[in-house]
Amino acid sequence: MEADDNELVRRVLDGDLAAYRTIVERHQGRIFYIGLKFLHGNEDAEDFAQEVFLRAFERLGSYRGSGSFAAWLYRVAFNLAVNRYRGGRPAMVELAEETLPDTAPHTEERLLSRESAERVREALQELPGRYAIVVKMHFFDELSYPEIAEALDLPVNTVKSHVFRAKAILRARLERFMED
Prior knowledge:
By secondary structure, this protein is mainly alpha-helical. It contains eight helices and no strands.
């Protein structure tokens, strides 16, 4: 049975450094992705992820275990990105790299499916930064509203409002596509 994040944190604080390796392996994809959104390059995103995990390790004693560890780690990453790259809005380029499945049996249907997936990606890329971040965290990373609120240091109702507004923007943009 795999240990949950809180158990791993407790073990790290007790001196088990191998437990931290498990934490890093479990969360490195998400943290790397945040780095990509701020930095736009694999090498820079890898450096960013390393720095996030170093800072998280140094501050691990401040994690109280009352909320999700993933949300706490997101906050460390987000704060580092905002503080280091202040003034630059995180670009959500390639937010939806996850493409829609290509299950259409006929060439024409496959082309329409690809075109639809491309329109969705374009619509996601055009979202304002604050909306794009919460959409990615909620729908792609499957974090709850309270976890997102904790990670971004926002009120839960603000997170809900951002998701609601982002969905409205996406709906309007995709309805225009459907009309065409």
